[in-house]
Specification:
The protein has 357 residues and is of the alpha/beta class. Helix content is 31%, strand content 25%.
Length: 357
C-alpha cells in the first residue's frame, strides 16, 4: 500500500509560488498541495479558486499551527524568509523549502540552520538552476575532462533593459534586494557547485540603468579567484545583443560557449509542466558549442544538451530525503555560503579591494 503523501503548505501566492513551486508539487506524487497563505485574494488571483479543495489561510501563524501540514514552502520576499522559516521551525513542521535567496544575511542563515539541527528537521533552499539542462551539460563536460584544465569560467544573466522599472520587491532597496541577491545567488551557486569555495573575491556592484535615483543595484560583476582559475559571475541590464551570452568556459583542451537561458522558466510561465512533451528541451539552434583542438587547430561543433532532469528533480530528491533516502537537494549550509560570498562581494565593491576568504 502506498504511503500517504506529505501535505505541503505554501506561504505566499506570487510568481514564485505559482510558477516555481506549486506546479512542481503537483507533479511529484509524494507531495500534496494542502494549503496556501494568501493574505488578500482578489478576483482572478485567488488561491482557493485556482486550487479547489485546499485550505486558504490569511496568516502564516494559522498555517504553521495546523498539525496536518508536513512541509512548509516559504515563497515570499527575501526579507521575510528568516522570520517565517523560524516560526515554522518552532511549530514542529517536518520539512522546509525556502525560496532563494535563503536570507538577506549569513548570520540569519546560520541561525536557521542551527534551529533545524537542534529540532532535527530537514531544510533546503530552492537553488533550482542547478537543474538547468545547459548547466548539467556543462558540468558533465567538465567532469569528463572534455575541456581539460579549466582556466576561465564565465556565467552570465545579461539582459538589455536600460529603462527597467525600479518598482516591486526585486528592484527595491531593501534587505535581500538587488540583482546580486536575485540573480547572483544562482550564478555564484553554480560556480561553487562546480569548484567549491574560492580563495578570494572581487565585487563590482552598481547600477547601469538610466534615471535610477533610488540606489537600487541592477548589475554586478563578481570575480571568484581560485588556484589557477578565475570565475566570473555577471548580470547586466545594458547589453544590446540579439542573443545573450550564458556560459563561456575555457580550458587547455577545449572551450564551451552557450547563448540564451534555459527554457524551463518560460515553459512554466506558459503553463507547461515537467512531464509534458518537450518540457526542458531546447531547440537545436539554442544549443551550445564545443571547440576542441584537432590536428593542432581549433574545431567547433554543436554540443547537444543532455536529457533534461527538469526542476522536478529538486522536489523528487526532497521527497526521498523526507523518507530517509539520501540528502536534501540543496544543503542549507551551501546556500548560507553563497549568501556569505554575496556579503563579501558587496564589501569588496564598497571598499574597492579584493578580499581573502
Amino acid at each position: 500500500m502506498a504511503s500517504k503523501p506529505y501535505n505541503v503548505g505554501v506561504i505566499g501566492f506570487g510568481l514564485s509560488a505559482k510558477v516555481f513551486h506549486i506546479p512542481l508539487v503537483e507533479v511529484v506524487p509524494q507531495f500534496k498541495l494542502y494549503a496556501v497563505v494568501q493574505r488578500s485574494p482578489k478576483p482572478g488571483d485567488d488561491a482557493e479558486k485556482a486550487y479547489p479543495g485546499i485550505k486558504n489561510y490569511r496568516s502564516t501563524e494559522e498555517l504553521v499551527k495546523d498539525p496536518a501540514v508536513d512541509v512548509v514552502v516559504v515563497a515570499t520576499i527575501p526579507e521575510t524568509h528568516f522570520a517565517l522559516t523560524k516560526a515554522a521551525l518552532e511549530n514542529g513542521k517536518h520539512g522546509f523549502i525556502v525560496e532563494k535567496p535563503f536570507t538577506p544575511t549569513s548570520k540569519e542563515a546560520d541561525e536557521l540552520i542551527e534551529i533545524a539541527k537542534q529540532k532535527q528537521r530537514l531544510m533546503t533552499v530552492y537553488q533550482n538552476r542547478r537543474w538547468d539542462t545547459d548547466f548539467l551539460t556543462l558540468a558533465n563536460l567538465i567532469e569528463k575532462g572534455s575541456l581539460g584544465r579549466i582556466v576561465e569560467f564565465e556565467t552570465h544573466f545579461d539582459r538589455h533593459r536600460p529603462h527597467a522599472t525600479t518598482e516591486g520587491w526585486k528592484t527595491g532597496v531593501r534587505p535581500g534586494g538587488g540583482a546580486i541577491y536575485d540573480l547572483g545567488t544562482h550564478l555564484i551557486d553554480q560556480v561553487v557547485v562546480l569548484f567549491g569555495m574560492p580563495k578570494r573575491i572581487t565585487g563590482f556592484i552598481g547600477s547601469q540603468g538610466e534615471k535610477n535615483t533610488t540606489g537600487y543595484e541592477d548589475s554586478f560583476t563578481v570575480l571568484l579567484h581560485y588556484e589557477g582559475m578565475l570565475a566570473t559571475a555577471k548580470a547586466a541590464v545594458v547589453s544590446p545583443e540579439q542573443e545573450q551570452l550564458r556560459y563561456w568556459v575555457r580550458g587547455n583542451k577545449g572551450s564551451y560557449k552557450k547563448f540564451n537561458l534555459d527554457c524551463q522558466e518560460d515553459q512554466l510561465k506558459s503553463g507547461r509542466k515537467p512531464g509534458d512533451s518537450g518540457f526542458g528541451v531546447e531547440p537545436k539552434e539554442r544549443q551550445g558549442t564545443l571547440t576542441t583542438i584537432k590536428d593542432g587547430q581549433p574545431s567547433k561543433e554543436s554540443c547537444p544538451n543532455m536529457e533534461p532532469l527538469t526542476y522536478r528533480a529538486f522536489y523528487s530528491q526532497f521527497a526521498k530525503a523526507m523518507s530517509g533516502e539520501g540528502d536534501v537537494p540543496v544543503r542549507a549550509q551551501d546556500a548560507a555560503s553563497v549568501i556569505r560570498l554575496i556579503e563579501l562581494a558587496k564589501l569588496s565593491s564598497a571598499e574597492g579591494r579584493t578580499i581573502d576568504i
